[in-house]
């Protein structure tokens, strides 16, 4: 499985993702500059966290127009896997690959913490190594992570079982329905505010996030 990590000006979690996919999991990993336009060999696209283009206008709003994003959209439309983490989630909503938007945290404070999440479904490659309703802990670090959608869109998201991760207990950023991560209807595009790549090595306090990446390899094994 070949991973491609998109690097925008201002990305700062790209190397963290590569450390997991390349160094821990031993999978081929290519760093993709935002101006590239050929990703045909890539199996999984990762839009990492950070501050793409300095978060000017809105988080992810400028990155959405990078040359690479048209290729990412086509990649997703072909049913291939795409994950956006934190700022990457914001980019995916700006590109309309996922519904809703991410706005300023409820208390307008930047949140940097480890938070409990509930795994809402485990029938997708992203979550298949978790137990249904399992409570996991992942790091978060964001100032605009409050998930917001219209009442109709929110009803559709819940009705289509598109919520993969939900905050447990305290709702740190005020996200509607405590949403921490959602997928598209097909399940091949995932956006999440917590950082699984920062919970993939026991040296940094846990490996809950590693299961997400390992599940992708498991899905390939099952298909073959």
From TrEMBL:
The keyword ATP-binding applies. It holds the Pfam family GATase_5. Its EC number is 6.3.5.3, 3.5.1.2. GO terms for cellular component: cytoplasm. Pathway: Purine metabolism; IMP biosynthesis via de novo pathway; 5-amino-1-(5-phospho-D-ribosyl)imidazole from N(2)-formyl-N(1)-(5-phospho-D-ribosyl)glycinamide: step 1/2. Transmembrane segments: none annotated. Keywords: ATP-binding, Cytoplasm, Glutamine amidotransferase, Hydrolase, Ligase, Nucleotide-binding, Purine biosynthesis, Transferase. SMART domains: GATase_5. It catalyses: N(2)-formyl-N(1)-(5-phospho-beta-D-ribosyl)glycinamide + L-glutamine + ATP + H2O = 2-formamido-N(1)-(5-O-phospho-beta-D-ribosyl)acetamidine + L-glutamate + ADP + phosphate + H(+); L-glutamine + H2O = L-glutamate + NH4(+). GO terms for biological process: 'de novo' IMP biosynthetic process. GO terms for molecular function: ATP binding; glutaminase activity; phosphoribosylformylglycinamidine synthase activity; transferase activity. It is found in: Cytoplasm. The active site is at 86 (nucleophile), 195, 197. It comes from the Bacteria. The keyword Phosphoprotein does not apply. Its main location: cytoplasm. CDD domains: GATase1_FGAR_AT. PANTHER family: PHOSPHORIBOSYLFORMYLGLYCINAMIDINE SYNTHASE SUBUNIT PURQ (PTHR47552:SF1). Part of the phosphoribosylformylglycinamidine synthase complex involved in the purines biosynthetic pathway. Catalyzes the ATP-dependent conversion of formylglycinamide ribonucleotide (FGAR) and glutamine to yield formylglycinamidine ribonucleotide (FGAM) and glutamate. The FGAM synthase complex is composed of three subunits. PurQ produces an ammonia molecule by converting glutamine to glutamate. PurL transfers the ammonia molecule to FGAR to form FGAM in an ATP-dependent manner. Part of the FGAM synthase complex composed of 1 PurL, 1 PurQ and 2 PurS subunits. This is Phosphoribosylformylglycinamidine synthase subunit PurQ.
């Amino acid at each position: 499985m070949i991973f491609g990590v998109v690097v925008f000006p201002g990305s700062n979690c790209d190397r963290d993702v590569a450390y997991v996919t390349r160094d821990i999991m031993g999978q081929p990993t290519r760093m993709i500059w935002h101006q590239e336009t050929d990703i045909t060999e890539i199996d999984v696209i990762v839009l990492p966290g950070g501050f793409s283009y300095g978060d000017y206008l809105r988080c992810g709003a400028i990155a959405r127009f990078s040359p690479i994003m048209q290729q990412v959209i086509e990649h997703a439309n072909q049913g291939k896997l795409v994950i956006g983490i934190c700022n990457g989630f914001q980019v995916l909503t700006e590109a309309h690959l996922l519904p809703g938007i991410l706005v300023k945290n409820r208390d307008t404070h930047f949140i940097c913490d480890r938070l409990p999440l509930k795994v809402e479904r485990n029938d997708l490659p992203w979550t298949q190594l978790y137990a249904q309703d399992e409570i996991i802990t992942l790091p978060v670090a964001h100032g605009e992570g409050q998930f917001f959608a219209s009442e109709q869109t929110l009803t559709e998201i819940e009705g289509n079982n598109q919520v993969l991760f939900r905050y447990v207990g305290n709702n740190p950023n005020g996200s509607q329905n405590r949403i921490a991560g959602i997928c598209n209807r097909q399940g091949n595009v995932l956006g999440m505010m917590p950082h699984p790549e920062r919970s993939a090595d026991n040296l940094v306090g846990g490996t809950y996030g590693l299961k997400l990446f390992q599940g992708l390899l498991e899905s390939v094994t099952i298909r073959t």
